[in-house]
Amino acid sequence: MRHLYIIAIVFLFGGFLSCTDFLEENPKGTLTDANFYKTEADAEAAVVAAYDGLNDQWNIYFRGIYLLAELPTDNAECGIGVANAQIWALDGYTHGPVNDRIQVLYQSLYQTISNANVAVDNIAGIDFNQQKKERLIGEARFVRALLYFNLVRLFGGVPLELHQVSDLNNVSLAKSSVEDIYKQIIEDLKYGQQHLDDVNSSSNRGRATSIAATGLLAKVYLTIGENENARIEAKKIIDYAGTEYGLLESYYDMFTPENRYNKEFIFAVQNKGYTGTANGFALALFLPRATIPLPGGGEVNGNSADVPTEEFYNSFKSGDTRRDRTFFTQYDAGAGLVTFRPHWYKFFDPSVIANLGEGTLNYPVIRYADILLTYAEAINELNGPTPEACEAVNKVRRRAYGKNIDTGDPSTDISGLSKEQFQDIILDERRWEFGFENHRWFDLVRTGKLLTVLRAKGLNINDHNILFPFPQREIDTNKNLVQNPDYK
């Protein structure tokens, strides 16, 4: 998709680009895309540009968000391979507005939103099949909703840009309210529910579906406390009559190259691999550094930069199969077994161990287990831990302990809990289920437990760290943008 992204940059030159040098030159005049966007192929290219922003794993998924949504939590810490002081600052809560990792993520989120806006604005005027046109617009709006969902949870109120910007003198937007941003996210996702396909064909894999829009909508409603709506939307997926979505029987098998497409991945960022251009899932940052020998000599070129905490590794209960899929502490690449401190293992692709930029695994954004736990949490907030809520959690737990998903088992099943106990159970299950998938920060914030949980584990988090600061360069460039409280 890289070559399409380059083409799209030409198309998108009039789009909303956050904090780029040419904006500071205060250019005059108006840019137009009137000579582009004439054919169905142009519409496809515009949507591909939006997806390609998600695929830029260094800036958004998976590492860009990892550095803000996993690293600063009790799940992760900096390893010996981290040389950037500003990443250490995120780990130790000494970060401020001048932080290059926050800036890269913020700018990349808006660049990809810009790509989506250009698609939404221009596809409607192209003459081709109306149903496909609405589907493509729905895909662009899904991407936009997903990225604004990340922005509003990380930064609070942010500038809400919904159209491509043709006049570069009008790019300095003030923050919109959190309520208005969520209103737009919900509107975009409801459009997707109406116009996206339920299931993608094999030639159309990786694109947003109406089921993905429904799943994201359930998570959005849960985040803003609309628990009945969250329950309703999650139930739509649970009740879906097709066999295309559901829990995979084995947690371990879910994250193997041969299962990169599976029924649990409701929406995932696609990684090609084997292109010779390092366009796959990059493994070096989370593999052990100069530890695993290769049969032909030398070692696996890991860097031990992004590593889990020992506390997270030790928190798993005996018999929970998720631990040994989320982490590994030993490996034999064909030249002898070696051991090491816990490292992330979930997205390890052994077929590219000598070429770590070519991993083939896809990166899940919404999984079926997430829907079950969202459903259970919404019910609990409404009515306490009903049998239906407990069963949704128990399905996830049975799979984790190698039991039959649909058969009750007293060794794993939970019951007889208070509402508060059930809240804690769900938070723990989400931690064990989604380690290294960038949910932990958002889960702790949503449940109001970020400060208490992290302080109890010795992290030096301050009250204002519940939001991240706007990058200082954004503040300097956009005079209408006000910094989040207590960041200097």
Give your account of this protein's structure.
It is a single chain. The protein is mainly alpha-helical and 488 residues long. 44% of the residues lie in helices and 8% in strands. It has 18 helices and eight strands. The protein has helices at residues 2-11, 21-24, 40-55, 63-69, 85-92, 100-123, 130-155, 178-195, 210-223, 227-238, 310-315, 323-326, 368-383, 387-400, 419-433, 440-446, 450-456, 472-477, and strands at 76-78, 265-269, 289-293, 299-301, 306-308, 327-332, 337-344, 363-367. The strands form four sheets. A two-stranded antiparallel ribbon has the order 1-5. It has a two-stranded antiparallel sheet with strand order 2-8. A two-stranded antiparallel sheet has the order 3-4. β3 (289-293) and β4 (299-301) form a beta hairpin. α4 crosses α6 (100-123), α7 packs antiparallel against α8 (178-195) and α13 runs antiparallel to α15. The chain is globular, with a radius of gyration of 22 Å. The two termini are 39 Å apart. 45% of the residues are buried.
